[in-house]
Amino acid sequence: MKNLEEFLAKTKPGAKKSRLHEFLPALKSLQDKKYTLKQIQDFLKENEVEVSVAWLSAFLRTNINSSDRQNLIIPSAPQRPAANTSRENPLRALSGKPKEGEFNPIPPVKIEIDNS
Length: 116
Fold this sequence. Notes:
Layout: H1 2-10, H2 24-32, H3 37-46, H4 53-63, H5 66-69
């Protein structure tokens, strides 16, 4: 495999780590001191590392151990109610006479038929 050997000889393997890894201790320190992601982004920009706030947030979330995460103030998304996983019509459960004190969103309707 001459082509492979030539390639390996003249090509350096790509970096496995992000450039942000070398700044990780400084980033942790900035977060401990309650700097915002935008301020941390500005710090990195001064050190010739440009990243988006979203990328920075994801990087910090995956590279900070769980004990450090307790110090972070990261708002969580509101929890959605569990989806109805059954294929049954949810209104079917409302059919029939409701129990006393139970709310029924489908009011009973009397239909009169004139047979004259």
